[in-house]
Specification:
- By secondary structure, this protein is mostly beta strands.
- Helices cover 4% and strands 57% of the residues.
- The strands form 4 sheets. It has an 8-stranded antiparallel barrel.
- The chain is elongated.
Length: 339
């Protein structure tokens, strides 16, 4: 569980200040082709083709109204043992999709009162498993946990409820907890009144042009291909023969951050898209346990990408930023087709 300010700080550092420059060129002596692909923009994918060694297109990510992830405003009915103890009006909740089966629920700071006495202010971000249906998403209550919420400790915390898929439907969320040493649980029953939701997708189809791999920040996907990371930094030693028998991994369902407009309010827009988890290892993120939350380092291992037609390319990344060190750019040596 993470406090809201930690989440926002992490997003800012990961989203704005995490450009790390590395010049580790495990490909000393490489005499083959090299390329650089601009992958700095959050709201775009950049597509590369090995055959001509060029960026073939950059496609913007756009948004339309709809879907579940978004910013909600509504009221909490505060209940203890079934009796109402008032209403918290116009409370904000953000729903952020972080994976295919998980969402991040963020509560703006609200003040809890019992019998006219303030118990303190509370704000939190907590992940919840979600079951997606055609008309609504169901938040699945997991095992009770303890979270720090503003200046309160919430014991035996659980979260459940439903969120309608259609733009005019409600979010109904139940939050139960015992604040501090209080023996009786408090139930917050939330009903949304307004919602600002967006669905993110590409401005044009990826099927309208030829490409092999695409870049979005540190995420990479293939055009129906697969990839393997080899246990070597010697690109010259890799051939079609040496990768025979290796296990190649196809792209899988994932999501990427594409809209940081409302980041300071706790909401980040994600695009659901296929990504290749193997190629995503071209940059290694190491948790620090403090601020900044991660350090980033270039991975000099050699990768092999297999296209959907069976041809292969070996790739070794040589840099993760541009000449200024401030913008994300994937630079790499490669051979295609792999001999």
């Amino acid at each position: 569980m993470k406090k809201l300010n930690w989440i926002l700080g992490s997003l800012m550092l990961c989203g704005v200040f995490f450009a790390a420059c590395s010049k580790d060129d495990g490909g000393d002596g490489w005499k083959g082709p090299s390329a650089s692909v601009d992958c700095d923009a959050y709201d775009a994918w950049t597509y590369f083709r090995f055959e001509n060694g060029k960026t073939v297109k950059t496609v913007k990510v756009t948004s339309t109204t709809g879907g579940v992830p978004g910013m909600y405003t509504g009221d909490f009915d505060v209940k203890v043992m079934g009796s109402s103890y008032g209403t918290i009006a116009n409370a904000g909740i953000n729903i952020t999709e972080v994976s295919d089966d998980k969402v991040l629920v963020t509560l703006d700071s609200v003040e809890l009162n019992m019998n006219g006495k303030s118990m303190g202010k509370c704000a939190f971000s907590v992940e919840s498993k979600v079951e997606k249906g055609e008309t609504e998403w169901t938040l699945l209550a997991g095992d009770p946990v303890t979270i720090e919420c503003g200046n309160l400790t919430l014991n035996e915390f659980t979260l459940s409820g439903t969120i309608g898929v259609s733009p005019d439907s409600e979010a109904n969320i139940n939050i139960s907890f015992k604040p501090g040493s209080m023996p009786m649980p408090i139930m917050l029953v939330y009903t949304s009144k307004t919602r600002i939701n967006k669905i993110y997708g590409l401005a044009e189809s990826e099927e309208g042009f030829d490409w092999d791999i695409a870049f979005h920040r540190y995420e990479i996907k293939t055009n129906g291909g697969s990839a393997v990371m080899l246990n070597t930094v010697d690109i010259n030693s890799v051939s079609a023969t040496t990768v025979a028998g290796e296990t190649f991994v196809e792209d899988g369902e994932g999501s990427v951050m594409v809209d940081m407009t409302n980041m300071m309010q706790g909401f980040v827009g994600y695009q659901a898209t296929n990504v290749n988890e193997v190629l995503g290892k071209w940059v290694t993120a190491t948790p620090t346990g403090t601020m900044p939350p991660y350090t980033y380092k270039l991975n000099s291992n050699v990768f092999v990408v297999k296209m959907k037609d069976g041809k292969m390319a070996k790739v070794q990344f040589t840099d993760m930023s541009d000449a200024t060190g401030k913008k994300e750019m994937a630079s790499f040596n490669y051979e295609y087709p792999l001999q």
